[in-house]
Write a structure and sequence with these properties.
This protein has 442 residues and is mostly beta strands. The protein has 5 helices and 27 strands. The strands form 6 sheets. Strands 19, 20, 21, 22, 23, 24, 25, 26 and 27 form a 9-stranded mixed β-sheet that branches. Strands 2-3-9-4 form a 4-stranded antiparallel β-sheet, with helices on one face. The protein binds 2-acetamido-2-deoxy-beta-D-glucopyranose (NAG) (5 copies). One 2-acetamido-2-deoxy-beta-D-glucopyranose binds next to loops. Keywords: Disulfide bond, Signal. It comes from Caenorhabditis nigoni. It holds the Pfam family Lectin_C. This is C-type lectin domain-containing protein.
Length: 442
């Protein structure tokens, strides 16, 4: 679409408009409250979650008995007998069950007696039964079960009067530059910021994992691999969103060493863990996205004061999903961590006595899990060992083994858990400082 046409259309579409709840594309609104997609097919848990994420949503979660009942009825009406929930349990107590939406341990539960019950690795996926004696009850099961249906849930948004608001999500209209007609030379950071501002919009700022997923979804099927974000650093490494919103969530690529005062998001679908951000110089010519609040009058005109009715703009994010900067570094030098299980998402781990050139000698195994039913990405940012560091998937498949000195590299696990083993017995003798790695869900 051409921006001048856009402008003209906008001028004719003014006036009062009552905001109404609606749903992003693909979702349907139920009870004027929840945006849902009902499965067309049965899938394994992770596949189902990925399907939901590809629409900017997640497997459904419930926080109270009323919602549990409502979801149960809807699913039963759609003929779905067993449905995956957006939850993963790491142990036999409900306080070890985490929601995939990043909101932390569950506060409401409706498990069958004897559940959650974790007998084997990767048996902590949760499903709901929608008929029979155990109607509405939850159970845990192996995540690899493939005969279960699912239900995706996404954020509600606000209806927009303007037909050019094709990408309406979480209360915003998104305008990706490839759908507009912007001369290439105008696609540097400062030029794009002024283009968005001219049309009373802002450059894209991102505030949740789901929004990352949604932006990826906008670029799926295009050959665009990078998109600029509306962030700018006044002081190196200290970014602020140009729309004035708080920089609370981040998704930096731990392996990127690029420097610059602007940010780019990788939307390359060839990369499994895409969606991550890295620094770029602001003169880089790139695609971008302009964003405005949905349900508002548009473009260079006085805005009607608008009552945006309870759109949850600032969802509470599990602190564990917030900035890596704020999350704690677990220094495995604390010998009590040796041979233990660590839950973190995100977080940083380092080997014994890192970065000392003469670490103590210790053989350790660490089991590491990211909260929720995501895949685990392990990003070694510094690597210098004598004996190899072995990384195993949850079913014991060797994913990586490297030794000596290495440039930064990543290991992408097939599930939410890995096991790392390392023997530092010869590290001191050969002056190896050990490793540091960032753990992120993707
Ligand atoms: C991209 O779109 C295709 C076709 O709609 C879909 O099958 C695929 O899962 C999507 N990929 C991602 C990463 O969402
Ligand atoms: C959960 O309980 C079962 C049955 O008592 C037991 O076999 C299993 O090891 C327990 N799982 C965990 C993770 O403690
Ligand atoms: C692109 O940049 C040129 C030169 O700065 C400017 O004259 C022109 O108006 C810009 N075009 C758009 C669509 O912003
Ligand atoms: C960790 O476990 C391994 C294998 O079971 C054992 O050899 C090693 O001594 C343990 N390390 C510590 C510090 O307990
Ligand atoms: C289990 O192992 C097989 C190969 O042996 C691998 O293809 C599969 O991805 C693994 N699954 C998990 C969840 O680790």
């Amino acid at each position: 679409m051409n921006f001048s046409i856009f402008l003209i259309c906008s001028l004719f579409s003014l006036g009062y408009y009552a905001t109404q709840k609606s749903c992003p594309r693909g979702f349907e609104l139920y009870k004027n409250k929840k945006c849902l997609i009902f499965a067309q097919t049965s899938l394994k848990h992770l596949e189902a979650e990925q399907q939901c994420r590809s629409y900017g949503g997640h497997l459904f979660t419930v926080n109270n008995a009323i919602d549990n009942r409502a979801i149960n009825d809807l699913a039963a009406n759609h003929g779905l007998a067993y449905i995956w929930m957006g939850m993963y349990c790491f142990g036999n107590q409900t306080n070890l069950c985490y929601l995939d939406d990043g909101s932390g341990p569950i506060k409401y539960s409706n498990f069958n007696p004897g559940f959650p019950r974790i007998d084997t690795e990767r048996s902590g996926c949760v499903f709901m039964e929608t008929f029979g004696n155990d109607i509405g009850r939850w159970s845990t099961s192996p995540c690899e079960w493939s005969g279960l249906w699912y239900l995706c849930e996404g954020p509600t948004t606000v209806d927009d009067p303007h037909p050019n608001c094709i990408h309406n999500y979480n209360g915003n209209c998104y305008y990706p530059s490839h759908e507009l007609n912007i001369p290439v030379m105008n696609r540097t950071f400062y030029a794009t910021e002024s283009i968005c501002h001219t049309h009373s919009m802002e450059l894209l700022s991102i505030h949740s994992r789901e929004e990352v997923d949604y932006i990826k979804f906008l670029y799926n099927g295009t050959d665009i691999k990078q998109v600029s974000l509306g962030a700018h650093a006044i002081v190196p490494d200290e970014f602020a969103w140009t729309d004035g919103t708080k920089f609370k969530y981040e998704n930096f690529d731990p392996l990127s060493t690029a420097k610059g005062n602007c940010l780019t998001m990788n939307v390359d679908t060839d990369r499994e863990d895409n969606g991550m951000w890295y620094q770029t110089i602001c003169q880089t010519i790139q695609d971008f996205v302009c964003v405005r609040k949905a349900g508002k009058a548009i473009v260079g005109v006085e805005e009607e004061p608008m009552e945006v009715e309870d759109v949850e703009v600032e969802e509470v994010i599990n602190p564990k999903f917030q900035m890596v900067k704020d999350s704690k570094t677990i220094n495995l030098a604390d010998a009590s961590h040796c041979n233990t299980t660590l839950f973190l998402a995100p977080g940083t781990i380092t080997s014994i006595d890192y970065p000392s050139q003469s670490p103590r000698s210790m053989l350790c195994t660490w089991k590491i899990a990211v909260l929720g039913a995501f895949r685990l990405g392990l990003y070694f940012t510094d690597f210098s060992v004598y004996e190899p560091v072995f990384v195993y998937s949850s079913n014991g498949t060797l994913l990586s083994f490297r030794q000596f000195d290495h440039d930064p590299f990543s290991v992408l696990a097939p599930s939410n858990m890995i096991t790392i083993t390392h023997d530092s017995v010869k590290d001191a003798q050969y002056q190896k400082r050990g490793f540091s790695a960032t753990v992120l869900p993707f």
